[in-house]
Each structure stands twice: as C-alpha cells, then as structure tokens.
Amino acid sequence: MSRCEFLRPSSSGEPTPGFVPESNEDEDGTEETKEKSGIFELEQTEIPGVSLRVEPGVKLSLLKKSVRRLLKLARQYAKRDSQIKALQKKQKEPSKEIKEIAKTNTGLRGVESEQDNLILTVTPRRSVKYEYKALRETLGAVTAPTIIHDSLVISIEIPPGFQTAEGQLTGELLKTTLMESLKSLGLKEEDLRKLTEWKDAHRVDEEALEEMEADGKVELSPGTRKIITTWAIDVEPLEKQQKQSKRRES
User: Fold this and answer.
1) Which long-range contacts does 40-47 make (Cβ < 8 Å, 24+ apart)?
2) 135 burial class (0-12, 13-18, 19+ CB within 10 angstroms)?
C-alpha cells in the first residue's frame, strides 16, 4: 500500500479526524506492516542447540552456511548491544552533572584537555511551543494571519487495485484531481474517512512577533508561548580538530 501526501492552506485551522493503517519502515527504507503478535515458532537447525524463530505456519529451508552466518552476526550484535547498554547507563550520571554545570554557569560551552586529547562541547538547543488558540486571540483577527501561517497536511492511503470513476486510484491521479474534489473520483464519505488523515500545521513568524512585543504592540498571556531548552553533549579528539585547523590555516 502506498501513501500520497499533500500540503495546502488551511481555512478553519480545526483538525479533521481520519484513519491511517500502521506501518513500519526499516532503516534501509523498506516498509512492512506491523505484526500484532510477537508469537513465533522454533524451527530446529542442523547446528545443535540452535533454532530459527519463524512466523507460525512458515517452513524455511536455509542453507547451513546461512544459519552459521546469521548466528555469527547475532553473537556480534548481542555482545555489542549489551556493552552499549551498559555504557549508556554509566553515561547518565556524568551527562546530567555536565549539563547542570553548563546551566548554572552562563556562557560555559565545554572543556578541552591536551593531556587527555579530548574536546567536550555542551550546547543548549532551544525549541518554542505556542498555544495557538490563545495566540490568535491575543493578536486579533487582523494581525493573527500575518504572524501565524497555517497549512493542512493531507496523507492519503492508496490501496492496491482500488478503482475510482476515472480508473485505478494512483498518486498521480490524486495530485491532478485533488483540487477538483476527491468526491468527483467516486469515493464515498466513509471511504474518505478510512483513507485520509488530516493534520494541522502552523508556523509562527517569531521575528515579527518579537518585534511586536518589543514595540509594545502585543503582550502574550501566560501559557501562550513555552520555551523548551535541551542540552546536547558532543565529544571528539583534540588532535583531530587541531589537524583540521592547521589544514585550514595552510
């Protein structure tokens, strides 16, 4: 099943409910349907004590060398996975303390050590959230559209072989006929509810809003804007950066 997404201006700003079947995308980009059950059957292999986990009712015929390769990779992965998890657990406390030191010392952004050949950088990352209803009311009907830019993101599932009044439903067909109305394709209201997902998206012109606040033209009520700051820690060898600096200088 494929998916076609569109972006168009929103007039109402109110979300329309919809339904989209769940899917899972692997790191390599392949998409597969989520399995509802975690129940597997064990299929014995020629290697003593080694079994394959398979979906119920599935019979595999893997070559012995394929099983050995899978087992080798699984051992390597499991060993690193346990090591990574152990290290992540150890990093929690120093990470927390490093961020606290940076927070309480304005302008501090890390440390360098030639003896330890390290550079540790700690930086704040700022994000802002708005309560859009309150912001619209504060700005007023005339000013709000110049500060808050609305859009409506439409995600439409395309079932394979789904027929419409103008032929099989495809992404290209939807792109060329969406503005004329999806109903003209022969889709019923209940079909639209199943195949479409509606999401409201907003973008605030923060520069313009801050100028209005500075000029005293608007005063946001408590809770309208929420500033969230998260801290990130990066570590790299000092020698590497020094070599890069010398190359740039030369």
Assistant:
1) 47/71
2) buried
